[in-house]
Design a protein that fits this description.
Distance between the termini: 25 Å
CATH topology of the largest domain: Glutathione S-transferase Yfyf (Class Pi), Chain A, domain 2
CATH architecture of the largest domain: Up-down Bundle
Number of domains: 2
Strand order of the largest sheet: 2-1-4-5-6-7
Structural class: alpha/beta
Number of helices: 11
Number of strands: 14
Shape: globular
Low-confidence stretches: none
Length: 359
């Protein structure tokens, strides 16, 4: 699979622009503020139906305009797919494949998978559990549409249950029958999502360990532990025992929305004990393992988007990463850099085709 061309209309800083790409390695260079990251985000939009930088679609419309459109031409197994996304103020978002609109936009997720690697991916290690859940949820959703549908349903039910708990607090009442209408489907979805996340971790960890050894050139063993309330022997009983706590907090205090993923090296927390180099190697390994697992599960290589990562890596890690990108099994790559001469020098020895575009 590869993206052959991309057209942008009123997307962020772009008024109207068309790009054509190499099916192998594409390097986008230019000064800061030229739109390099915005170009990668447009590709991310076409693949995942949303921006990597903010959930409000209309925020990505060029200032002073009323709409944006992103259109891309993909090729997969000798078949052509024209994907276009249109967001208009007051009218929402439309996604189409070969001019046919999806009944549900979520149906598009996973059709053209991508992986985005950014300089601030170390936030996955340093920040709270929400950012890690989002990272893994996005990954699993590209491989399993049913998981995405279950997760969306869970989030909606949890939101409704929380609103009901807040209403109870405001009116000083308790309607257990109403609460039960949320409890039962939430319990079922908790179990489904828990099992899917468990299965995912079992597949992901060996790929993570292999990727870490390649990037860090180290014998240290990278580990990932899945932490969840669902590990309780009888989660249903535990869930119901939290009623008074839920009423006091006015929110659902137990469930998969509290899950976390713990990163470690040699059984020591990467967040607490990892050096900057170890943390950088770990997050690169996360992204490479994500790429490998998606390729394994979807039977196609995802697009790999690398945003300005050379500034955050030392020479050894750059060399190890470039070796991975030069592998014939690697899919289409898009990378950005603000220093054209450095990029050309780094990519000069690549065996794969490299196309350099200057903004």
């Amino acid at each position: 699979m590869h993206l052959a061309s991309l057209s942008l209309f009123n997307f962020k800083n772009y008024e109207e622009k068309k790009f054509t790409f190499s099916p192998q390695i594409n390097c986008i260079v230019g000064k800061n503020g030229a739109g390099k990251t915005n170009l990668l985000d447009a590709i991310h939009y076409l693949c995942l139906t949303k921006s990597a930088f903010g959930n409000i679609d209309t925020q990505h419309i060029k200032h002073g305009e009323q709409f944006f459109m992103v259109q891309g031409q993909f090729y997969r197994e000798q078949h052509q797919f024209l994907i276009d996304c249109n967001v208009q103020i007051g009218k929402g978002k439309i996604f189409r494949c070969n001019k046919k609109e999806y009944e549900k936009i979520s149906q598009h997720v996973g059709e053209f998978p991508c992986v985005l690697m950014m300089p601030y991916d170390t936030d996955l290690i340093r920040e709270g559990s929400e950012i890690r859940r989002r990272f893994f949820d996005n990954m699993i959703s590209q491989m399993d549409l049913l998981y995405l549908q279950n997760l969306m349903q869970y989030n909606q039910l949890q939101k409704q249950r929380n609103a009901t708990l807040q209403l109870f607090a405001q009116k000083n009442l308790l309607d257990k029958d109403l609460l039960e209408s949320y409890n039962l489907p939430l319990l079922q979805l908790n179990q489904k999502i828990f099992k899917e996340r468990q299965q995912f971790v079992n597949l992901f960890v060996p790929l993570l360990q292999m990727a870490y050894q390649q990037i860090a050139n180290s014998s240290e063993v990278a580990k990932l532990a899945y932490e969840t309330d669902l590990q309780a022997t009888d989660f249903k009983t535990l869930f119901y025992s939290q009623l008074q706590k839920d009423l006091a907090a006015q929110r659902t205090t137990l469930g998969i929305h509290k899950d976390d993923y713990l990163f470690s090296l040699q059984d020591l927390s990467v967040a607490k004990f990892g050096s900057q180099g170890q943390q950088k190697s770990y997050v690169i390994a996360l992204r490479l393992a994500q790429t490998a697992l998606i390729a394994q599960q979807k039977k196609q290589q995802p697009l790999l988007l690398l945003d300005d990562i050379f500034d955050k890596l030392d020479d050894q890690r750059i060399a190890q990463l470039l070796a991975q990108l030069d592998n014939s099994n690697c899919g289409q790559v898009f990378l950005t850099d603000a220093r054209p001469e450095r990029t050309k020098k780094l990519l000069a020895t690549m065996q794969r085709e490299v196309k350099v575009m200057e903004l």
